[in-house]
Amino acid sequence: MNILYIHGLNGSLSDDKRVILETYGTVYSPSIDYEADSNSIEHLKEEFQYKDINVVMGSSMGGFVGYHLSIAFQRPALLFNPALVTRSVFQNIPVYNNLHRSFKKIVLGAQDDVVYPKNTLIFIADRINDNTDYQITLRQDLAHRIPLQIFKEEVAAFFNDYTI
């Protein structure tokens, strides 16, 4: 299993979270400078198109990028507080077609004051007919940052709920 994990703005995949993901497969987590690369989605698609990615994951800005890459690769996604509606850094959004029914689990923090969960829910509602099965988890105990225990729980739930 090959997992593509996309970090958030000015972030990276922590060693502790990498260890959790590595129990499920090989983890690719490129370093991305969103401010310098407004075409990060397309560049990542080009970089990983021959790596046989099975799952796309991401958080915040990485959740936004992961959302689009999961469509490009036709792969399931686990997205934490994805910045689907607004971002502080401009990114070009390529148009990819969701030809095959896809699965996206989106974990939203009710206490998030960076990526507002209500806006994300409206974004998803506007795309209800996009050939995607959404599973949305709204956690009252979660803000924008994803604590290790919640990360571990949601990754396990993702792999339990979706058979690749």
What does this structure look like?
The chain is built from 5 helices and 6 strands, in the order E-H-E-H-E-H-E-E-H-E-H. It has 164 residues and is an alpha/beta fold. The chain has a single domain (2-161), classed as Alpha/Beta hydrolase fold, catalytic domain (Rossmann fold, 3-Layer(aba) Sandwich), CATH 3.40.50.1820. The chain has a 6-stranded parallel sheet with strand order 2-1-3-4-5-6, with helices on both faces. Helix 3 (61-73) links the parallel strand 3 (55-59) and strand 4. Helix 1 runs parallel beside helix 5 (148-161) and helix 2 crosses helix 3. The N and C termini lie close together (9 Å).
Q: TL;DR?
A:
With 164 residues, this protein is an alpha/beta fold.
Tell me the series of helices and strands, N- to C-terminal. Answer: EHEHEHEEHEH
Mean of pLDDT: 93
Strand content: 15-25%
Distance between the termini: 9 Å
How many DSSP E strands? 6
Structural class: alpha/beta
Taking Cα atoms only, what radius of gyration do you get, to the nearest Å? 14 Å
Descriptive labels:
six-stranded parallel beta sheet, Rossmann fold, 164 residues, alpha/beta, 6 strands
